[in-house]
Amino acid sequence: MKYVTLAAAALIAAAGALQAQQLEQWGTAGGWDVMIDPSLGDGCLIQAAYNDGSLVRIGFDRNEGSGYITAFNEAWGDIEEGATYDISFDLDGQQYDGVAKGIYLNDVPGADIYFDNPDFLFDIAEKYTLTLYHDGGEVMAIDLGGTYVGLEAVIACQDEMG
After folding, report:
1. Which of 37, 83, 137, 160 lies in the 20 to 30 Å Cα band around 77?
2. pLDDT tens-digit profile of 59-69?
3. Which strand (E) or helix (H) includes residue 71?
4. Could you tell me the keywords of this UniProt record (predicted)?
């Protein structure tokens, strides 16, 4: 089982950074919206909504020099803002453990997972399914189709941002 090294300072900063949510549209790629988040140092990200009600973002926080996965879902009502949760996730059978921080976006609960290993971003890009677990139970499973193309666009977006 691999472990994702998390940037503790990024976890603390993440909740405040997500409050602004002034995302700017950059383009689309691979079925994802490619956006810029000025509150994260003009960090670029991909965003998609899923049939289970989840909104997922994968991107870069340029303020912290980290990558992140953030997911929101109204069905996750018992999440406490600012609390940390031990999580695990599966990328096509490859297991990772990490810590998520509870956050809210427009009153919708979510989980923010930061990582500082750039290889992990490409692990995501090359996989087909991401399944998130907490306390041994499945929280969310999403199709990662188009993620590689989407993250290539995120890199182009970041290059454009300087």
Report:
1. 37
2. 999 999 999 99
3. strand 66-72
4. Signal
